[in-house]
Structures are given as C-alpha cells and as structure tokens.
Write the structure tokens for this entry.
Amino acid sequence: MAWLLTRAYCPRALPWASRCLCGLMKVRSWSQGPLTAYMPEAASFPGARDHQSLYKTSVEQGDAFWGMLARSRLTWITPFHSIQDCDLRQGRAAWFLGGQLNVAVNCLDRHVHVAPDKVALIWEKDEPGEEVRVTYRELLEMTCRLSNTLKRLGVKRGDRVTIYMPPCPLAVASMLACARIGAVHAVVFAGFSAESLADRIRDAQSETVITVNQGLRGGKVVELKKTVDQAVKQCPGVKRVLVSMRTDNQLPMTALDVLLEEYVFDYQDRDVFGCVADIGWITGHSYVVYGPLCNGGTTVLFESTPVHPNPGRYWETVERLKINQFYGAPTAIRLLLRYGDEWVKKYDRSSLKVLGSVGEPINKEAWEWYFRVVGETRCPVVDTWWQTETGGICISPRPSNPGDEILPGMAMRPFFGISPSVLDDKGNVLLGNNVSGALCISQAWPGMARTIYNDHKRFVETYLAPYPGFFFTGDGVYRTSEGYYQLTGRLDDIINISGHRLGTAEMEDVVNHHVAVAESAVIGYPHEIKGEGAYVFIVLKKDSKYMEETLAAELRELISKKIAKYAVPEYIQVTHRLPKTRSGKIMRRVLRKIVENKASELGDLTTLDDHDAVQQIIEGHKHLVERQKSC
Ligand code: WTA
C-alpha cells in the first residue's frame, strides 16, 4: 500500500489537468488563457506569472511548490508535517512525511461530493457503438461493494492482489477497491501468458487474483480465465480467484473461484479524456485511472485494437465519444498511417484539442501525419517522455505556454519539478547544449518510484548507484543546440516492442530452455511499425539434429507461451558462434550494428576473440533478411 499511496500522491493528481488541456505552438496559438486559469495555485507564487517562472519555482523551491499542490489538490486523512526527506545518494526518497491519504477517496469520494452524476469512465467496448458510461457515484458504489467482498474473503491491508483483466469498469473498480482497503494491486497486462502471469503472482506472493471469464479483443475471444487456471496451478499460494462474467460463456468453476455479480450503468454526456493504453501498463494506471479520476475527469477505457473492425476505429471513437484529448502510442500511429488518410478523414475530429504520444520515440513521419492529418494542424502534438519509475510525464512540450515552439519527434522541455541532467559514461555532468549522454534526474520529485517491492537493494543498484546523487532513467538523450531534449533510446538491455518494455535477458532465458539451444543473444532492431523488434541469435547444441525452420517455429511458440504474443521475434538466426570478448562476454554492440544493417561500422574489435564468427553472422543475417522478404 505504501507504494501505491506514495506513488499516487501528487504527480498523478496535478499533471493531468495541467499537462493535457492546453496548447500553443510557434506557428499558431492554442493558449487556453492565463496560467492561473488552469493552475490557480500559481497565484500564490508572486514571481510565477508564466510557465517558465513557475517551472523555475518548482525546481528551486520544490518544497513550497509540491506542498502547495498537495494541500490544494488532495484530501488528506492526516496532514503531513514535512514535505520531503530525500537524499538520492543515500537511496532515500520520502515525501509528505506523517501524511496519510487514500487514493481511492481522492479519485472517487472527493468528486461524488460535488458532482455525483458526472461520467467518470466511458468503457469503449471491443465492438464500436456499445460504449458504457459509469458515473462517479456508480464507480464509488462498485468500488465499495468490491472492497467489502475482498474484506469478507479475508484480504487485508498490505496483501497483494493480482488483477488480470482487460480494460473494463470492474478492472478500475478492482484497482480502487484494493487501494481503498490498503491492499497492493499488481495489474498484469491481460496479453501475458500463463507462465508470465504465474511468475508475477509468485513474485508478489499474491493470494488473490481477480479476472474475467473471457476477454474480447479485435473481435476475438481471449480465454483469460483458462489462462488464470493454468497459472494458478503453479502458484500454491493463491487462495481465491474472483471471476466476473465479461461474456455469456459459462466456464467450469474451480474450488478457488468466487463469482462477482454484474452492475448497472447510466448515461451522461461530458468531455472526455481518451487515453487508449491498456490498464496493464503504467500509462493506463496514471492516465486512464488515477490521473483523470483524481482530477474529476471523464476517462475512456479502450478495450479494443486500433484496427478493429477497421483502421478507422480510433477516429470513429473520437467522433462518437467526442474525445477532447487523445493519448496513444507511436506504434499504433505508424500502423494507421499505412492505411492512408481516408480512414481518418471519414470521421469528425473537431472535438480534439491535444494529441499525445507516449511509450517510445515518435519518428518524424508519424509525428507529421498525426499533426497534419489527424489533428488538421489544429491540435498540438505532445510527445511525452516518462517511464513506470517516474510515475507521470517528466519531459513534454507545454503547448499552453505562449511562445513555446514544438518540434516533431521531441519531448522538448522538462515538466514542473523535474531537473534533467545529461551525464557521460564517466559520470560527468555535461553542461551546455549540443551534448548527448545518459538521461538522469538530479532532484527527487513526488511521483518517483521509491523502492522495488521486497528488494530495496536492487532499486538502489539499478536507479541510484550508476550515477551517485542522480536518478538514472536507463535512456539516452540529446540536448539540442536550443536546449531541447530528444530521447535517443535505451542504454541498457531493454527492448521496447510496440511500447512494451522487455528485458532481453528474459527472452534469452526462455530460448535457452529449448533442448536444442546451447546459447542465445536477443537484440533489439528498428522495426517500422513496432518501433523495435526482437532479433534472436542461436547457437545450437553440438548434437542437435533440428531443422532451422522447425526450431524457429518451436521457439516462437515457446516465447508466445512463456512471455506474450507481442514478444514473438520475426528473426531467428542460427549461427556457429556468438561474437565474444576474450573474457567471454557477448559483444552485443557488434550484434546490434549487424541487425541495424550497419556492419560497416562495427568499431573497435580489438577485444574480439574470433573474427570469422562475425563474418559468418553478417552473411547469415543477409540471407535471413532476404529470405524473410521473399516470404
Ligand atoms: C521509452 C511508458 C522516447 C523510454 C510511459 C522509457 C519514450 C520507456 C517516450 C518507459 C518518448 C517512453 N520518447 N522514448 N516520448 N516515452 N519512452 O515504463 O525508453 O513502459 O524509459 O513507461 O519507454 O516505458 P514504460
């Protein structure tokens, strides 16, 4: 609960309203009025008349800034006695000491008080035109009922509850019900396999799982309950599985199952925030559930895919639900761009004010299309950089600031309270502009992760130890000659497939389990639609009689089963050896250059132990790519 509460304190509460509602670019003004119109608190800082001076205040007088927002925007059970006690060198980040709040109260009760019939959620179901609207009062009732069910079943404060559900009102109510009673929710993306789900249930030592009988996605039935049943077989600690009926299909019940009843919704027409991320990822947590609800907004729960029943789905939804802010991922934009402008132009998008992008760098072509075709050059595009660990948006254009320009494919400027630094690999802070290096944040902020559940040591080693005194993001960044920030991709062994983060080690682990595999290396490569794809290099065991095609098919199946469908690699290359240093480390940068088709830029190979291996891999890569193309 501590994690959940503290992560939900302030950054979720304040940025949504201020980040997403406004606009002005160099070429055209989107300003929605003075700063104080949407951030009245700015008035209490005499010098802060515009974004720039308020940003300065937020960094230089952080305590006063966050303290003021925390008091004005949140309801506290016990007021805090001090704003923060943070020391990144010591691995300490504590905010709002002595204070106690409940995030569910801030998301629901606070608003039910003033506008009970305002629509909180619009559930955009898989089939277009079947949307369901849930008011704040209904969501509170649903949440309270579920909290009581959880309590009755023995779930207590501090217990972990795994939620394996597609975006639907009950999933949001489940998150809020956990928060309400002080349980910790672990939402597992409902695309994950039984194995991945089981890993997560065991890791969290979760005794309770909440799911639905079946999901519907892109017109297809997804057997979620069956996946849960398989996962639970490997998790003896699970004591109960709460099942809600998303479809009419009656499934055989197990001894652990508890059926949840359905609810009734009414209809209310209001402005809407349309973030189409799944609730199983951080974007869904912060910008579908907690951010919009804490701010009393109306939020869309998108259950479907961008191409179901056709590639006009997003824009048809925008027209029908009158979405004002649309927040999506570059991978979807790139996919839709390929289908042409007609699918967009068919629908009325006049309700749109701001278009957001998140999850990975957005290339210029996709940015331009989003801006010109989708937004008719009327809506600013905000390329928002942040990550699970930061809790909310950290670097992003602020289109409301008069005079601010927005350039394609750039997250541009730090948001309130965020002090980005660029560091070289020796840990020196690179001052001035036109520099690239590791993106670090030099000052604590309330939304940051403070620990890894049950593993504080790992938290310190991963985020604070690499650059003492700084929070290390794992991303590379370029500060342009104008002082803007442009993200350049991950510096570690993480790949980002369609905006979903995956450790290459996790995939290698799965691949290495195959009987024929002696060794493997998984490398990310640029992919036109997905942003990055996984490229798998395999060394076979000496006695292996496997045909390459059979092996590739089995490995794909294994990855789909053990990790998720989205992770299935397009390229699997069998090779005799992997390039290694004399000390036995795989030279991933060499493999990376090869899969990026930059074999002529392999750089310094003095530590390489076998030059022939590299030549063979380059040849093998060429053949594989040609073969794949001709298929
Ligand atoms: C990447 C998603 C470039 C980055 C909110 C980060 C981005 C990781 C952007 C976090 C962006 C996210 N431009 N890269 N606008 N937004 N990323 O934790 O590598 O799923 O570290 O959070 O996505 O992914 P996560």
Notes: Residues 1-32, 264-269 have pLDDT under 50 and may be disordered. The chain is about 35% helix and 20% strand.
